[in-house]
Amino acid sequence: MLDFVNLEADLDQEERMIRDTAREFVEEHVKPDIGEHFENGTFPKELIDEMGELGFYAPNLEGYGSPNVSETAYGLLMQELEAGDSGLRSMASVQGALVMYPIHAYGSEEQKEEWLPAMGRGEAIGCFGLTEPEHGSNPTAMETYAERDGDGYVLNGSKTWITNSPISDVAIVWARDRSAEDTPVRGFLVETDRDGVSTNKIDEKLSLRASITGEIGLNNVHVPEENVLPGVEGMKGPLSCLTQARYGIAWGAIGAARDCFEEARQYAKDRDQFGGPIGRFQLQQRKLAEMGTQITLAQLLAYRLAELKERGEMRPQHVSMSKRNNVRMARDQSRIAREMLGGNGITTDYSPMRHMANMETVYTYEGTHDIHTLVLGEEFTGIAAYQ
Ligand code: FAD
């Protein structure tokens, strides 16, 4: 596996163990039939429990059954899962960084005890409802709202593009609290079997096909007061979760690119044209040289990001640069790998085109490439250019 500057040398035993466990899991349980899942638009649901048993959901959290592994170990885990498929990494990212993290950071003791151990084991599945049909890049303008109703709240609105919503037990729904002054955004734990909740599946995707995506409809849904996340108010709630998930994506995208590189490297050695392997042609070597270089640069950024996170010095802007760069890199390089595989490259028998199609989603969700560009633009000029 490509590790050109020997980053492995700095890993401790636990980090190597987690990486190897995930790599083996992907080789044995994901790669054999992920192409078929992609074609059929299905998620390998049978892996959900096993991923829980192996500790793949938020192992970087502390307590409630989570082992509190290093941020590097968590990143390596995301990298290996996404080498399998972005749908698999998305499942683990949503469960861990977008649902378990906010319960851990902002939940009551009862909420933590009810959800964290069960979600860590994969017995309960969660989803994160922020995006709405009319509000994607600008979630601050969300229309979903909550109003006081006796001992709790009534929720109304709709969320869309929600990873895992059709298979979730609980959704974290971000909504404006109309009963409070300034209508702050608050997080509500909404069990999906409550009256008035619908979670229709979105079927027409041509990207991230091995992942279940849906809507969340909320029609006069009553939730008790104890389902509100008590520890956060305002956009800081959802945005802080996104920072955690984007951290994992910055690592994960490297896995997808690395898988494309390895597939192309092998193909270049195996495929004969004009009397010998295509890997002897300078044009093909140039592609591998560029791919290997870009992957290595992305790895360096991810490892540094992990160090900053471990020290408590990672800022959302650091994550924006890493997500933006590493996903664009994977998007570009998966296409080059696809090209190297000729006609075979457009099939699900090989991984590059599947990764390439997945990257269209990864480039768009968790803050589009454009939005992260504007975050960096603001960082470097002090001028916000969003509006
Ligand atoms: P828009 O915001 O309408 O953007 C359209 C285009 O305009 C983009 O190119 C964008 O970059 C550009 N644009 C927007 N504003 C600006 C600006 N100020 N300056 C320049 N260009 C701009 N959301 C969740 O809440 N939970 C999930 O689990 C989840 N999972 C997803 C899974 C999939 C498969 C997909 C595709 C999306 C998912 N999303 C999820 C939603 C995702 O986060 C949004 O699609 C994303 O934020 C972009 O919003 P939008 O699609 O409405 O695009």
UniProtKB/TrEMBL annotation:
Q: Would the keyword Lyase be found if you checked this record's keyword annotation?
A: no
What cofactor is needed?
FAD
Domain Acyl-CoA dehydrogenase/oxidase N-terminal, by residue range, is 13-123
Write down the EC number: 1.3.8.6
Broad class of enzyme this protein falls into: oxidoreductase
Could you tell me the keywords of this UniProt record?
FAD, Flavoprotein, Oxidoreductase, Transit peptide
Give, as in the UniProt entry, the pathway in which the protein acts. Answer: Amino-acid metabolism; lysine degradation; Amino-acid metabolism; tryptophan metabolism
Which Gene Ontology molecular function entries are recorded, alphabetically? fatty-acyl-CoA binding; flavin adenine dinucleotide binding; glutaryl-CoA dehydrogenase activity
Q: Which GO terms describe its biological process?
A: fatty acid beta-oxidation using acyl-CoA dehydrogenase; fatty-acyl-CoA biosynthetic process
Its domain of life reads Archaea
Q: Which reaction does it catalyse?
A: glutaryl-CoA + oxidized [electron-transfer flavoprotein] + 2 H(+) = (2E)-butenoyl-CoA + reduced [electron-transfer flavoprotein] + CO2
The Acyl-CoA dehydrogenase/oxidase C-terminal domain, residue ranges: 234-378
Describe the location of the Acyl-CoA oxidase/dehydrogenase middle domain by residue ranges: 127-221
UniProt lists the family membership as follows: Belongs to the acyl-CoA dehydrogenase family.
Q: What is this protein called?
A: glutaryl-CoA dehydrogenase (ETF)
* Species: Natronorubrum texcoconense
Please spell out the taxonomic lineage of the organism that makes this protein. Answer: Archaea, Methanobacteriati, Methanobacteriota, Stenosarchaea group, Halobacteria
